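Example 9 (inverse folding). The structure is encoded as follows.
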């Protein structure tokens, strides 16, 4: 792998067939990012690390048509800074701000330098991901005076919502600037779910870390579990048995279907069709009960482990899963027809929360929401790992980019996932479901990248010279997509915000870390 006009040499990341890594000069980051952007690529993740006596480093993962490019730039220990890349990839803005809050590495030239993850739990002179930071330290709570951007003028006023909401959802603060009910601007304040996950990883072993990875975002336990296992297996030089890889794909598609089912029900409810909520939640509950029966957990927690999977399925389970797939197909078809033909639902869905393909490309909208706005990115189809390289995934894309388009993509992805699950069950190879993880006693770098139901989930794993965990960065697609929500609601009315928000259904916990 080589970029034009740069001497940078990329080396394959162990265990990741389409991922490469290179050490680069920090000054070259904006130009390297621009070259990837101009060739149709995108920003996947940005994070930092404390390298002890060697100073610090900033890491940038870029998705191109050839695969994943991981850039590592060393930073000076006394002045850990690097050039701003948010001018090239706007999605980098919050990632850069979080990297400063946690490590004290600064993006020079960035327009937005407001804090992001730091509320009042630690002072601005402390950086939790530095090695000398005392994780047990308790600091006096500071006032969290977050500088929202204000809209002023005749008839304009603000509506604050959250961070504690009326429903049983995670905390996030939204500041609406409106004239009447028309939204002029939305400001977001997240970080209320920050739990020190990245710091906690550093005290765990590679196998223990699997349990924490599965709990980064509770609705994506399979995606994070697989990404963690993939990263660990790359560092350890371990290949899971074929049957385990096919079972992982089965679990991943079940996770995709059950989340889409729940959200389609909630979208119907937000549009005034409580019937939709009742029917889709009934179907989701059926899936959750079979998950519990066959795999030991309703949300498939800890089903994937480094080296394989935790549980096998027998012939009776295969028959049960086939029957459920057929039942779901039969029941979802008339429900889709009701949604498509219901005048009230379509009136609420059509044109609401629209993100144009041009804006989606500029700001890096990803996952199913990106595909509803013409962004044809799906790891299962473009960079298929086993068994997706043998399944021919049919990517669902649309261009209208509104709530209706995102609902349509969900329906189509459910149908495709059910087809994939049936094919997986037919082709499921015999054999073991787990191989022992060999000991790791070296410095290494592993990448796990999985197309979760919300979008691509990345786990970057750095190990120290003795094989212990040096740094872990789990990255949720919500990092890219939360800023798009601010744009999607402009020009809409305040009562449509819950509907638009649910059509994305982004993770608070996944990006607060």
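The amino acid assigned to each position is listed next.
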């Amino acid at each position: 792998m080589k970029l034009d006009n740069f001497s940078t040499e990329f080396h394959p990341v162990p265990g990741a067939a389409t991922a490469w890594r290179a050490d680069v000069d920090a000054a070259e980051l904006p130009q390297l990012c621009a070259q990837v952007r101009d060739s149709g690529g995108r920003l996947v993740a940005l994070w930092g690390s404390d390298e002890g006596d060697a100073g610090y480093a900033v890491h940038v993962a870029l998705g191109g048509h050839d695969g994943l490019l991981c850039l590592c730039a060393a930073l000076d220990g006394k002045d850990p800074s690097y050039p701003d890349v948010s001018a090239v990839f706007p999605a980098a803005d919050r990632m850069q701000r979080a990297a400063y809050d946690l490590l004290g590495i600064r993006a020079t030239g960035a327009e937005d330098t407001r804090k992001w993850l730091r509320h009042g739990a630690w002072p601005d002179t402390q950086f939790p991901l530095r090695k000398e930071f005392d994780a047990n330290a308790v600091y006096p709570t500071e006032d969290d005076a977050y500088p929202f951007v204000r809209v002023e003028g005749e008839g304009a006023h603000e509506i604050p919502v959250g961070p504690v909401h009326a429903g049983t959802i995670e905390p996030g603060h939204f500041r609406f600037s409106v004239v009447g009910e028309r939204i002029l601007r939305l400001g977001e304040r997240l970080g209320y779910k920050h739990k020190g996950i990245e710091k906690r990883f550093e005290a765990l072993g590679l196998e223990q870390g699997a349990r924490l990875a599965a709990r980064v975002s509770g609705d994506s336990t399979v995606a994070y579990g697989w990404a963690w296992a993939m990263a660990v297996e790359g560092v350890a030089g371990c290949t899971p048995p074929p049957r385990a890889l096919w079972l992982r794909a089965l679990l991943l598609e079940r996770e995709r279907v059950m989340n889409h089912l729940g959200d389609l029900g909630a979208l119907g409810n937000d549009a005034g069709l409580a019937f939709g909520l009742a029917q889709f939640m009934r179907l989701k509950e059926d899936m959750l009960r079979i998950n519990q029966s066959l795999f030991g957990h309703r949300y498939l927690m800890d089903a994937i482990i480094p080296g394989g999977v935790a549980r096998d399925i027998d012939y009776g389970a295969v028959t049960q899963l086939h029957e459920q797939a057929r039942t779901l197909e039969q029941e979802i078809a008339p429900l889709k027809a009701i949604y498509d033909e219901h005048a009230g639902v379509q009136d609420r869905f059509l044109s609401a929360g629209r993100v144009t393909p041009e804006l989606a490309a500029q700001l890096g909208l990803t996952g199913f929401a990106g595909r509803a706005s013409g962004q044809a990115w799906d790891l299962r189809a473009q960079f298929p790992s086993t068994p997706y390289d043998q399944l021919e995934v049919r990517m669902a894309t649309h261009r209208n980019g509104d709530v209706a388009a995102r609902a349509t993509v969900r329906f189509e992805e459910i149908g495709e996932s059910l087809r994939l699950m049936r094919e997986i069950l037919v082709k499921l190879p015999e054999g073991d479901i787990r191989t022992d993880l060999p000991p790791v006693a070296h410095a290494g770098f592993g990448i796990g990248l999985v197309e979760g139901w919300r979008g691509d989930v990345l786990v970057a794993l750095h190990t120290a010279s003795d094989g212990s965990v040096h740094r872990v960065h789990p990255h949720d697609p919500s990092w890219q997509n939360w800023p798009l929500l601010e744009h999607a609601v402009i020009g809409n009315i305040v009562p449509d915000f819950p509907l638009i928000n649910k059509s994305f259904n982004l993770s608070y916990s996944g990006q607060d870390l």
